[in-house]
Write a structure and sequence with these properties.
Helices cover 81% and strands 0% of the residues. By secondary structure, it is an all-alpha fold. Helix 3 packs antiparallel against helix 4. The two termini are 31 Å apart.
Length: 411
Amino acid sequence: MSAPSASVSPPITHPAMPPGLVVLFLSLLLGIQPVTTDLYLPALPGLTAGFGASMAQAQLTLTSLLLAFGGAQLLLGPLSDRFGRRPILLWGMAAYTVAAIGSALAPAMEVLILWRTVQGAAMGAAVVCARAVLRDLYAPAAGARVMSQAFSGLGIIACLSPPLGGLLASTLGWRAALLMLAVFAAVTLALLALRFEETVQQKNPRALQPATLLRTWWLVLQHPTFIAFTLLTVGSYAALFTFLAGSSFVFIQVLGVGKTTYGLVLCSNAFAYFLGTFLCRRLLPRFGVRGTVAIAATLSLAGGSLVGILALTGWHSPWAIMLPFYLVMLGHGVHQPCGQSGAVGPFPQAAGAASALNGLGMMLAAFATGGWLGKHLDGTVLPLAYAIWFWSIVIALVGWTLVQKYGEPKP
């Protein structure tokens, strides 16, 4: 295999899938990630108490899922380059459905952690192929706009998931919330089987050869544009994951927020993220990718700093976290479509591998953040607030420096 191309290929018009259908598939495939986390978070305290488990074990149901999610992408990305996106998506969504059912029926915390790990690995097929499909069909600049449309759909899914999870957990128990994940996966699998058409123009028969794979990874990892945009997505996702991993305990157990109300908190954050994707589409034509990311990085830093400062000065209330965190979520709605499309942009012939490495970076940061929170949550809001503050600084530094130097300059 030759080195992954860094050239920009023109947009592809796929005869069997109109643009609206492509956006729908991207929304569902990328949306499986917030469904898997956000819908189940309101049930996390309940399942922890039901199994008599520790907070560290409860965090493992999330962090093990995400570590498997990131690690599996290293294989699933090249597999999709070798065999195409469609078979990897179908097998991945089928495995996810089975794992979701297993999670809902788990008799012990250890079994639940095992099924969630399988679920995370299967989820990798959906997300890594979604990013690769975007590069199959669109050049990087156009891809950022299409990705922002898909993330708008993801925002709707993320907005609906927490209140639904809170309602199910409150009325039917935590198992019902986990079972809903299987319903979402089964519907997505059916749509893929019926309407998704292969997007890989030329499969790479040598994508899985060890020497080729190592060479491809090395070429991707040393590309400055990939590094810049991956660090942006890592910082942005880590800030979000910090909130997801720690907020259920802080809001429900420390601040006394009810499960259904907490679901609405997550929904409002998702709505802010949804607005951020619209902001992204408005800014891109005027400021380009670099300028858009720089503006969003300012929002991220302002929001994260306010969360930390208010906590430091003793303002411990749901609003003191929620209101400034909306700014972080607005920025997140810009950083993810720009970052994910930018990271795979230089590699039209190795989009799966580049997507996998980008996803792995985000999941490693999430795993480290979840592990840190599991050890440092102390019955106050401070660990959560300080971690959000830290990641907002990382976002700003990357968005104002590396992305400005190596990012795609044109919208």
